[in-house]
Specification:
By secondary structure, the protein is an alpha+beta fold. The chain folds into two domains: 220 residues, 3-Layer(bba) Sandwich (FAD/NAD(P)-binding domain); 124 residues, D-Amino Acid Oxidase, subunit A, domain 2 (D-Amino Acid Oxidase, Chain A, domain 2, 2-Layer Sandwich), CATH 3.30.9. 36% of the residues lie in helices and 26% in strands. The chain has twelve helices and 22 strands. It has a seven-stranded mixed sheet with strand order 6-5-15-16-17-14-18, with helices on both faces. A six-stranded mixed sheet has the order 8-2-1-12-21-20, covered by helices on one side. Strand 20 and strand 21 form a beta hairpin. Helix 1 packs parallel to helix 8 and helix 8 packs antiparallel against helix 10. The longest helix is centred in the last third of the chain and has 23 residues. The chain binds 3,4-dihydroxybenzoic acid. 3,4-dihydroxybenzoic acid binds next to loops. The site of 3,4-dihydroxybenzoic acid (DHB) has 11 residues, from loops.
Length: 389
């Protein structure tokens, strides 16, 4: 079999790229170890930057997002006994974020790819990428019991944080920071506790009140990475969340918890993001801690660049954008790494945090909510930088 672009991974990066390329008439094949069912039902994060929403809308995959997503024009930071609002609309010229779960984005992209006749192979095994240093790379895999080999012009490794394609980049540097904590995340049947997200600093550690719909809420609290969700009955979860936001005057509305998980917390960047005819995109190349919601949005930003770079190659045999992909992508990646680390460091309790550190965090939060220029920095980064190289 032959295709133009072989894509390993049917997550946000892989599926969005296949969709963008299709709109230009460039063929792709997408393979993934997971089943379609798994991909469409795994709960991930849920906040889309303005430019992600715009790109989905402009490319015809934003209808359900527009109907069912909820637009947020600000967030609240809870600290020092009060809620402090960051007004995105006022600080960023009307930009906003949209709460719409990642698995719904994937569901929409899969439906669109299939409607457009796209080649998506779910539940494959033994995926192997070969020949990336030459001009005929290929992907081998087993699908529905038969061995397949797809010859490609280019391969995109969009296979997530446990990427195997990343290992094919010789001499790469893996830059990372581990954090001594994790997030306990829940989904609950409950009314919203707040009209906008609340990021809370407290003596007991960080908490985040988010939402999914008028009847389903998403909440998180900082925990030890070894926490066993089994040790946390609903009452204990609600007490902990409540204790972390009550000081700021927020009230958590409770209800049955139907999903509990502990989310790993890591900052990671692979440099370079390419070798020969292999290009990495999304979590395969970089992982951000969840604070500030950059993961899916960075994946989309990567493939926005790759789409334009591949178009330049196919339309004019111009390889300059492909050659410059790592340098262009890494600029945004490092801005997002800094932002996610900054939000994390300002709001979480670290091992060995003492009163000095707490007062310093409170002063930083005071700066961010009290100074228009500092608030603008937070708002601009939260709603996301524009998608121009
Ligand atoms: C959500 C997750 C985040 O990491 C965040 O910063 C905001 C919201 C969410 O899943 O809703």
């Amino acid at each position: 079999m032959r295709t133009q672009v072989g894509i390993v991974g049917a997550g946000p990066a892989g599926l969005m790229l296949a969709h963008l390329l299709h709109l230009r008439g460039i063929d792709s094949v997408v393979v993934d170890l997971r089943t379609r069912e798994d991909i469409e039902h795994t709960i991930k994060a849920g906040v889309l930057e303005q430019s992600t929403v715009d790109l989905m809308t402009e490319t015809g995959v934003g209808d359900r997002l527009r109907r069912e997503g909820s637009v947020h024009h600000g967030i609240n930071l809870a600290f020092g006994g009060a809620l402090h609002r960051i007004d995105f609309a006022a600080l960023t010229n009307g930009r906003a974020v949209t709460v719409y779960p990642q698995h719904e984005v994937l569901t929409d992209l899969i439906a669109r790819r299939l409607a457009d006749g796209g080649d998506l192979r779910f539940g494959v095994s033994g995926t192997r990428v070969e020949g990336i240093s030459g001009d005929r790379p290929s992907i081998r895999f087993t699908h529905e019991g038969s061995e397949q080999r797809v010859e490609c012009d280019f391969v995109v490794g969009a296979d997530g944080s446990h990427s195997t394609t990343r290992a094919l980049i010789p001499g790469r540097a893996d830059l990372f920071r581990e954090y001594p904590f994790a997030w306990f995340g829940i989904l609950a049947e409950a009314p919203p506790s707040s009209g906008e997200l609340i990021y809370a600093h407290s003596d007991r550690g960080f908490a985040l009140i988010s939402t999914r719909s008028p009847t389903v809420q998403r909440l998180y609290f900082q925990c030890d990475p070894h926490t066993d969700p089994g040790d946390w009955p609903d009452d204990r979860i609600w007490e902990e969340l409540s204790a972390r936001v009550a000081g700021a005057g927020a009230v958590v509305k409770t209800g049955p918890v139907f999903q509990k998980s502990v989310l790993r917390f890591r900052s990671f960047v692979c440099e370079p993001m390419q070798h020969g005819r292999l290009f990495l995109a999304g979590d395969a190349a970089h992982t951000v801690p969840p604070t500030g919601q950059k993961g899916l949005n960075l994946a989309v930003a990567d493939v926005y660049l790759l789409d334009r770079a591949l178009a330049a190659y196919y339309e004019r045999r111009d390889t300059s954008l492909l050659d410059g992909y790592t340098a262009t992508a890494l600029r945004r990646v490092w801005r997002a790494q800094h932002f996610s680390w900054w939000m994390t460091s300002m709001l979480h309790r670290f091992d060995g945090t003492n009163d000095f550190d707490v007062r310093r965090q409170l002063a930083e939060l005071d700066l961010v909510t009290g100074s228009a220029s500092a608030a603008t920095t937070l708002a601009e980064n939260y709603v996301g930088l524009p998608l121009t190289p």
